[in-house]
Design brief:
The complex is a heterotrimer of chains A (106), B (218) and C (749). With 218 residues, chain B is mainly α. Helix content of chain B is 72%, strand content 0%. Among the domains of chain C are: 1-135; 720-749. The chains are: A mainly alpha (106), B mainly alpha (218), C mainly alpha (749).
């Protein structure tokens, strides 16, 4: 049987990759993909715990199901926010320079 | 026989893990955003393989249905709706320093967490007991819908709220969307910049905002 | 009830319906004006349908109202309440119909019709409730509505109309700059005077509750044996009943609280009719009658139908004292106000005095009934004649008021001295007014005769059988009041309708003085009628005003055919109509009934002939009967000043007010205000000192804090880049630190 630690290692690698993407990328869609990758990593960790901990079996699976449902909702919201961002600033680039006023007002 | 099965499982695991990690890397680093989105979808399907390994076939089904079928499709839609996102100049990293810091932080987290995962005394932390049948979808349904139905309702509320927000944002008139929140308790109305692409703020905007800026500056 | 509907609908329809009057006004002005009439018409139909259910209701009569207090709303269906309900709802209905035309050109009719409808609802609540407390609520609803309605024209800016022969009051409280002020004053006066009575009444109700433990009339009657003797034993019975009777005195305008009713004529005429005929003043009579019935039924139940018993054994003295008091108050009121009415010059005020006088008769009759019962004689007949007088008075007084409203409407003056010679212009009004006046005077065969004459008759019976000389005094009062009544009735008719037509010049005069007030109204009249004669020619009012008059006049004439039925209902007898009718006639023309009848006829002749000579035959010649000086003039003045009772109250009030004013000037201004000002000055000095501290230390501290926090936030601003990447980085950094902490705690690092 594969040790729990292996699964957790994979989960952490995915989380790290997602975090790296979110930290470094400028493209909004890339950032969204990074977030989803992090979410997948968390799902794997939960599933592993669900299998390896006897009391956590059902709870873990149910949590993954709920997580996936919410992920669908928040992805839709994120896309619409991107559209709004694009409409407002004319770009999906996060790295654009931000004026002082904008910092105050937003 | 036992040894063979366990070996086969390990091979499976390593294979899937390698594919998933490579795909995730590609999803983040591929120059073309459309390819990246496809890689993400494939990665989500392979994550379902992990769930199958972890004896959660229902979750695996859901993962494929929602992530591969729904979310990656949504992302591709987003890419299509935002032609600017396909601009490959966006992929250039602002500064090597930012990239270094990013790699450093995420790498150190992965490293530290891996140490934690490996050294943590799981056998002591996890209570002994017989593992419930995780393959039984009926039990899962009972847990979800009857024993802890309130969670499902809360999640449903959250999703409904987000969808209402989505619709509201989409229905907003363009001009209205451009404006900041106005009103006596909010900030003053900000006139639309004539050229959204041009980054230099028009003079009129500054004049309108001078009041607010003064207020804040004080 | 009709269609098996619940009983409470009768009161709820007008009370809640009043709130819908303005709603109806949103749709149509006309619908709004007719809303009270329609709703009250529904309530009237329901009331009439209660007639077969007297004593044996077909549905539940009680509903839990406030469960915590055990307070129930219960409908009482006995002859008295049902008859009063029918009377009130029918008269209200006719008056509301009349109002639709009478008020058609006034402003602010929302307020008027809301209050009118609530007024009727209050009366129905009072009469139909079996609970003293809820009856009191209805009583107070009426009090409030009367206040609002009497002072309805509170915004008239013209100076009040005066009469040349009016007395000049010296009291500054009786001088008014505008008519609106006068009207408001009248409404307030009615409210305050009735409130004095109500305060006593509430006290009486609470005392009664302490002893009986219930507010319900029926439970009170059933339990009479215990509380009656307890209260009589410690001497509380008479004071308690007198307290409750004080409420009736205030509401029904008995002496000495009769002062508000003549002034209550300031409101529109339909309001006066409502107050006098249907609702307000009858409430006092109703409450007194209710207590008489409660006591009598208590006595009757415990003695197998014989109406003598408990009262005789336990509370004989107490009951006798109370009813003697009632009878005396009634008798004095009847005579006193009748004499006041003989000299008044205001058309509606004369009618107000006649109302007071007739109410005095009713109280007298109830008192006589009570005394007769306490004496062991039958009380029922006197009680019956009181109820009949309530009914007949309601009808003919509504008739008189509505007719005089037509006169006032046409002439725009309220003083009969400015009228005269109207008979050729207002033929129909003249006829119905004569019918009402003859009924008021008690001329056979009009309705007033049957009821009033039987009151006098039972007073005579009491006087003859009772050793106490008070009986003869009451009889004397009653007969004298009857003589006065016919005199002022004929005087009213003579001055208003006969004699030379002063109308042309006087009308123009009064019209000029009312130019402001009625200009708008007249314009509308022009538009409607398109006839020039309106200015010079008074005319009969339109159908919505005349039809109620015809109905009431018809009832007044044929009342003697109706009364036998009423007798059966009230006394719960089963005689045939013919038997009752024969008995009614027979009592008048056989011994001993013929003696008081004869005396009454003599009194009527003694009052009527001089009245006829002076005001109808001598209408064209100036009246010289009262000389400028001398004894007659002094009597005239005494009556004209309303026995000085009203002015006495104002004198006391004025004295009180000037005393308080002196107190204000001498004590309050000098001492109390002095202390105030001195302490204020000291405080100011102290505050100036404190201000320095405040400005420099407290404000300095606060400003320093804010200045430094602004500076701190500005310096840390650069950390807020507003970029997701940086924020995610910070979050991940934090997670890394957490992981390191966990690792440290595990001892790995």
């Amino acid at each position: 049987m594969i040790p729990l630690s292996w699964y957790l290692a994979v989960a952490f690698i995915l989380i790290g990759l997602g975090a790296y993407g979110m930290m470094v990328k400028r493209n909004l869609i890339r950032i969204l993909i990074g977030a989803e990758i992090m979410g997948n990593g968390v799902s794997i960790a939960l599933a592993a715990f669900a299998l390896y901990s006897p009391v956590f079996t059902l709870t873990g699976q149910a949590l993954i199901i709920l997580m996936i449902s919410v992920a669908a909702g928040h992805t839709a919201l994120a896309l619409v926010l991107m559209l709004a961002y694009n409409r407002r600033y004319g770009t999906v680039d996060l790295g654009r320079p931000i004026s002082q006023e904008e910092k105050i007002n937003v | 026989m036992q040894g063979f099965e366990s070996l086969f499982e390990s091979v499976e695991f390593l294979l899937i893990a390698g594919i998933v990690i490579v795909l995730a890397y590609l999803a983040l680093e591929h120059k073309e955003i459309v390819y990246a989105a496809f890689f993400f979808g494939i990665m989500a399907s392979f994550v379902a393989g992990f769930f199958l390994l972890l004896e959660a076939p229902f979750v695996a089904g859901m993962q494929i249905a929602v992530y591969t079928g729904g979310i990656s499709a949504l992302i591709i839609f987003g890419v299509l709706l935002l032609p600017r996102a396909q601009d490959s100049t966006l992929e250039a990293i602002e500064s090597p320093r930012a990239k270094k810091i990013g790699i450093l932080v995420s790498g150190s987290i992965v490293f530290l967490s891996a140490i934690l995962a490996l050294t943590f005394p799981w056998s002591e932390a996890i209570p002994e007991g017989t593992i419930e049948s995780s393959l039984d979808v009926a039990l899962l349904a009972e847990w979800l819908w009857s024993d802890h139905g309130v969670y499902v309702q809360i999640i449903a509320l959250i999703i409904v709220t987000s969808l209402v927000g989505v619709i509201a944002l989409m229905k907003m008139d363009k001009a209205e969307l451009m404006k900041d929140i106005t009103g006596e308790f909010g900030i003053e109305a900000k006139p639309l910049p004539e050229e959204p692409e041009s980054e230099e703020a028009p003079e009129a905007e500054e004049a309108a905002e001078s009041e607010v800026s003064e207020e804040v500056d004080e | 009830m009709l269609l098996g509907l619940p009983y409470w609908l009768i009161l709820v329809i007008p009370l809640l319906g009043s709130l819908f009057v303005p709603v109806a006004g949103r749709f149509s002005e006309r619908l709004r004006d007719w809303t009270p009439a329609i709703l009250m018409g529904i309530a009237m139909v329901f009331c009439w349908s209660l007639l077969p259910e007297i004593g044996h209701p077909t549905q539940t009569t009680s509903w839990m109202w406030i469960e915590v207090l055990g307070l129930e709303f219960e409908v009482l269906l006995d002859p008295l309440s049902v008859l009063m309900g029918i009377l009130a709802s029918t008269l209200c209905f006719l008056i509301y119909v009349y109002s639709t035309e009478y008020m058609a050109h006034e402003g602010d009719r929302n307020r008027f019709f809301i209050l009118m409808l609530a007024f009727g609802g209050g009366m129905l609540t009072l009469v139909l409730s079996n609970n003293l407390l809820i009856a009191f609520i209805g009583w107070e609803i009426m009090g409030f509505c009367s206040y609002g309605l009497i002072g309805f024209w509170n915004d008239k800016r013209n100076p009040p109309e005066t009469d040349p022969s009016d007395i000049d009051y010296k009291n500054p409280l009786l001088h008014f700059r505008t008519e609106g002020q006068y009207n408001t004053h009248c409404g307030t006066k009615a409210f305050i005077v009735t409130r004095i009575g109500d305060a006593f009444m509430l006290g009486g109700i609470l005392i009664l509750f302490v002893f009986t433990g219930t507010f319900s009339f029926t439970e009170m009657a059933a339990d009479a044996q215990s509380w009656w003797s307890t209260m009589a034993g410690i001497g509380m019975l008479v004071p308690t009943f007198l307290l409750i009777f004080m409420g009736a005195i205030g509401k029904s305008g008995q002496a000495p609280l009769q002062v508000w009713l003549p002034e209550a004529m300031a409101g529109p005429t339909s309001v006066s009719a409502l107050i006098h005929a249907a609702t307000m003043v009858k409430a006092g009579v109703y409450i007194t009658a209710r207590f008489l019935v409660t006591m009598a039924s208590a006595a009757g139940e415990h003695n197998g139908g014989d109406h003598i018993g408990v009262l005789q054994t336990v509370g004989f003295e107490a009951a006798l004292t109370f009813f003697i008091f009632v009878a005396i108050v009634g008798g004095i009121t009847a005579l006193m106000t009748a004499t006041m009415g003989m000299v008044s010059n205001e058309l509606k005020q004369i009618l107000a005095f006649s109302t007071l006088s007739q109410l005095g008769y009713m109280m007298l009759s109830l008192g006589v009934g009570g005394v007769l019962q306490a004496e062991g004689l039958h009380f029922t007949d006197a009680y019956l004649s009181s109820v009949m007088h309530v009914i007949s008075h309601g009808a003919f007084k509504a008739l008189l008021f509505l007719a005089s409203g037509g006169v006032i409407h046409a002439l725009h003056t309220k003083f009969i001295t400015k009228m005269g010679g109207l008979k050729q212009y207002m033929r129909k009004t003249l006829i119905v007014m004569w019918i009402g006046v003859l009924a008021l005077a008690g001329i056979p065969p009009f309705s007033g005769f049957w009821s009033k004459d039987s009151i006098i008759e039972y007073t005579y019976e009491l006087a003859a059988h009772w050793p106490n000389p008070i009986g003869w005094m009451l009889f004397f009062f009653a007969v004298l009041a009857a003589g006065c009544t016919i005199f002022y009735s004929i005087r009213l008719m003579g001055i208003t309708f006969y004699g030379p037509s002063k109308e042309t010049q006087d009308h123009h005069e009064s019209h000029d003085s009312h130019e402001e007030e009625h200009s708008e109204e007249n314009e509308e009249f022009h538009e409607e009628h398109q006839e020039e004669e309106h200015h010079s020619m008074p005319h009969d009012p339109g159908p919505a005003m005349m039809i109620p008059l015809y109905i009431l006049a018809a009832f007044t004439i044929i009342a003697f055919l109706v009364f036998p039925f009423v007798q059966n209902i009230v006394l719960e007898e089963s005689h045939t109509w013919a038997e009752n009718f024969a008995h009614m006639i027979e009592v008048k023309i056989t011994y001993p009934g013929i003696v008081p009848f004869g005396i009454t006829i003599i009194a009527l002749l003694a009052g009527g002939i001089p009245g006829y000579m002076m005001y109808i035959r001598g209408a064209d010649t100036p009246n010289t009967w009262v000389p400028e000086t001398g004894f007659r003039r002094r009597i005239h003045n005494f009556l004209k000043h309303r026995w000085y009772i009203n002015e006495f109250y104002y004198w006391i009030l004025n004295k009180f007010l000037s005393a308080t004013e002196r107190y204000r000037v001498n004590v309050d201004n000098k001492i109390i205000d002095g202390i105030d000002f001195k302490s204020a000055d000291t405080g100011k000095g102290l505050a100036t000192k404190l201000r320095w501290f405040d400005d420099n230390v407290v404000d300095g501290f606060a400003e320093g804090v804010s200045t430094y926090s602004v500076a701190a936030s500005e310096s840390s601003q650069s950390a807020q880049t507003g970029r997701v990447n940086d924020y995610v980085g910070v979050i991940m950094f934090g997670i890394g630190i957490l992981v390191i902490i966990v690792l440290l705690s595990l001892g790995v690092l």
